[in-house]
Amino acid sequence: MNKSILLGRLTKKPEIRLSQANNTKVASFTLAVNRKYVKEGEERQADFINIIAYAKLAEFVEKYLDKGMQICLTGRIQTRVWDDANGQKRYATEIIAEEIDFADSNKKDNNVAPNVFGGSTGVVTTNTESTLESDDLPF
To answer: Is the pTM of this model over 0.70?
Structure first.
């Protein structure tokens, strides 16, 4: 199984282009993902992971994502190999996005944000506060 789940922030505004093969929209961006552990006396380290989104998901990225936004992303790892102009072999490892959710809390009056599962758009609330009382819980 090839599945990755990442939580991180966009390092810059996504780049949008059309594929040469079939004119499909392609979005490229980098996600800064914090490492779990921090060594004492050091700042938290982050990994910068290249993300690619295609078709409807790329349209969603173009419309809603921007630099600094925190997202939760599900996708698959893909590697590519090619020869550059000098004949040198080049390698790239990327995440192909399959699902993107907002992870920032929405501080505006409108607590509704778009959500994408497998390329179809929907609506999800971003308010993380629970309104359930302890008596309402089923356990």
So the answer is: yes
